[in-house]
User: What shape does this take?
Amino acid sequence: MFKKFIFIAGTLLGLSACQSTSLIGGEDLDILGSWHIEVAQGKAAIDYSPAQLVFAEDGALSGNNSCNQFFGKYQLDGQALTLSPAGSTMKACVDALMQQEHTVMQAMSEVTQAELAKGKLLLKDADGKTQLVLSKQ
Assistant: This one.
């Protein structure tokens, strides 16, 4: 009986050590500040692109979607994340940046969760597919 108890306790302890969650006690991830967009919907960002997201302490979201500045709000609850861009400037840029801008905006609308992994902020959709990969600036 004692061996069975030790086996079960060891197994449960081992399984709990395998969890990949970044949170302790349901706390929010630390995403505050400026994050450079490295990848949007599986496509690497154009070299020297100004694409970035800025998360403010008051829930304000701003940044550059590759060509234009944008602003809006975000809501973070543990790892659940919603991005709500509300508006942007309307200048024209070269086609490559305009296409990347479209991809970034589309990716932001798909984000439902965030995860910190190896110094990167991964923004994922409801299916767990990574929409944006960000690095801290």
